[in-house]
Amino acid sequence: MVSSPMSWQSTKARWFLSADSARTGICPRAVRHGRRHSCHGSSSTARTSTPRPAQNSPGSRRRWTCCGFPFAMTGRGVTRIPTHLILLLTTFILSLPCATEAAPGGYVLGPGDRLSIRVYPDDHLAPELTVRTDGTIMMPLIGAVPASGATVPGLTATIQKQLEGRFYRAPSVEIDVVRYVSHRAFVLGSVREPGGYPLYQGDRVLDLLQRAGGISGASIGFAYLFTPRPGQGAPEVQQISLRRVFEAADPAHNLAVPNGATIYVYDQARVFVMGAVERAGSYEVSEGGTLLRVIATAGGFSARASTTKIRIYRGSPVKVVEVDASAIIKNSGEDPVVMPGDLIYVPQRFF
Prior knowledge:
Elements: H1 5-15, H2 19-24, H3 28-33, E1 61-66, E2 69-74, E3 79-80, H4 83-95, E4 114-120, E5 128-130, E6 136-139, E7 143-146, H5 152-163, E8 172-179, E9 184-189, E10 195-198, H6 205-211, E11 222-227, E12 236-241, H7 242-248, E13 262-265, E14 271-275, E15 281-283, H8 291-297, E16 310-314, E17 319-323, H9 325-329, E18 343-346
Parallel strand pairs: 9-13, 14-18
Antiparallel strand pairs: 1-2, 2-3, 4-5, 4-8, 6-7, 9-10, 11-12, 11-13, 14-15, 16-17, 16-18
């Protein structure tokens, strides 16, 4: 079916100011809706019910105002749009939200990670999938796809290969990690943005410190790297000279960060409590403050806390003091005084 002249002109007016509209002085809005509105051209032809085409010769100039913006046409069918309108449109385009940034290629996927998968040209095939405990994702059309242990580029290539030929001629696959779960490390203490962060292949202490916004204190001292040892109670602790990390990226101090590790940056003014307490974090300590008082400030022991082997990490080189809090509670032990800069670790029971 052939479109009517009005529908053809309406389509044309959606995208640009037509030469016909410019020559007659009709506002593009009038062309789009098939009627006039309050934006009339400055020439007499724009005010008549039957506009007469104007014969613009090269070099002549024609003006009108539409929706508050002045337009001009110079010569035959050449339209100029004012600079301030171009800047307004540019600002609007730049303000539009960008797509989610893809995960760096070094992140290794694992169970619990949430993925957004888009397949083009079939836009509606865009599921969000979670890597299951068996390490696979259930992808529409192709079923179970191994994901655990793969990087995002690797999984993208696998899905694209399985779709190509069987369901699509030349599919394009994009994958973003919506939620990082399987590989994370924690940065706590004297940093600008303490918290948990995704862990990528090859990450070292400096990478995680940068991700946490850097050191918040005025002086660069030292940090602890806690590496979990499942089934062995307390984690392995390594002391790090931050000066050696920042100034020389010394591999003896800029250590590789394993999955689940915690980096604690020493804070000389506060005590940090971590492990099986209700509110892990850093706390001010008054002179003469004791271990149990600080733990009480942190909300007390959690239900699965092991109170017999609480550890206090102190100073550089690090000194470890082991305390039996259950004996203190029974009045058969002394509640030790804690000092600013101490790190208190409460282990968790595994039964």
